[in-house]
Design brief:
The protein is an alpha+beta fold. 29% of the residues lie in helices and 32% in strands. This is Replication-associated protein ORF2/G2P domain-containing protein.
């Protein structure tokens, strides 16, 4: 299928991408299949490129999942190092998923949705998690007595989390928080978590898939001018391509 426009119709707005040069899916796939696979050590340049591609793909997927759902809370979950070795990624992931799944299975939050991503500490060894939650009325959120310095929003603690410290704030803008949560996935994180999962979701998560079509960009701009809240154009010389991203409010 040929297209020059990709549309994500999210619950709170649309994300639209226009390509200056029409994308020919069939030609692209055939060209990729012609490449022969060679098992060899990658050069330093190739490793950096692979890392960059992996980082971009992970961020895009997290953003897509986040935008596909409506969220109530943005949370941070840490681990008490006296109780848990937070440098052991596999161990803390096991405890995290066990905690989240127990809440769903035991009936406290049977319909809870979550999207959780890791953040690597500045020491390059230890991890904690950030996440988005919804349909979690069974969790106990207690006001911490503090407010966020920038937004002024009250900061809560999750009393049910006994493995370390927590913070939680109300989500007011899904689009903004979707962009914000991707910043925790860095090149260093991707490098450290090679061949490991970099985000975790509940099974009931919604994922909006894109629609592809041929559209006139100038006509699109005229029709939806009053709904466009963001526009950014990127030139990709090596691909002879120009890509423009639009955000539209409902």
């Amino acid at each position: 299928m040929d297209y020059n426009c990709r549309v994500f119709d999210y619950p709170a707005g649309q994300h639209v991408t226009f390509y200056k040069q029409t994308i020919h899916n069939g030609e692209l796939k055939n060209e990729n299949f012609k490449k022969t696979y060679q098992k060899r050590e990658r050069t330093e340049k190739e490793e950096k490129h692979c890392l960059s591609v992996s980082l971009k793909n992970t961020k895009n997927r997290i953003y897509q999942i986040a935008r596909s759902n409506r969220w109530e809370w943005f949370i941070t979950l840490t681990f008490d190092r006296q109780k848990t070795d937070s440098s052991d990624y596999d161990e803390i992931v096991k405890k995290l998923t066990q905690y989240l799944n127990n809440f769903r299975k035991r009936g406290k939050c049977p319909n809870m949705k979550y999207l959780i991503v890791p953040e690597l500490h500045a020491d390059g060894k230890h991890y904690h998690f950030h996440g988005l939650l919804s349909d979690c009325g069974g969790l106990c959120f207690a006001y911490s007595g503090h407010n966020d310095r920038k937004s002024g929003k009250p900061i809560f603690n999750i009393k049910d989390w006994t493995l370390g410290f927590t913070t939680a704030t109300r989500v007011e803008d899904t689009e903004r928080v979707s962009s914000y949560i991707t910043k925790y996935i860095t090149k260093q994180t991707v490098s450290h978590l090679k061949n490991k999962k970099r985000y975790y979701t509940s099974q009931n998560i919604e994922i909006v898939e894109p629609e592809f079509c041929i559209e006139d960009e100038e006509e699109f701009q005229q029709i939806y001018a009053d709904r466009i809240t963001y526009c950014k154009t990127i030139d990709i010389p090596e691909a002879h391509q120009r890509v423009t991203y639009y955000e539209l409010r409902d």
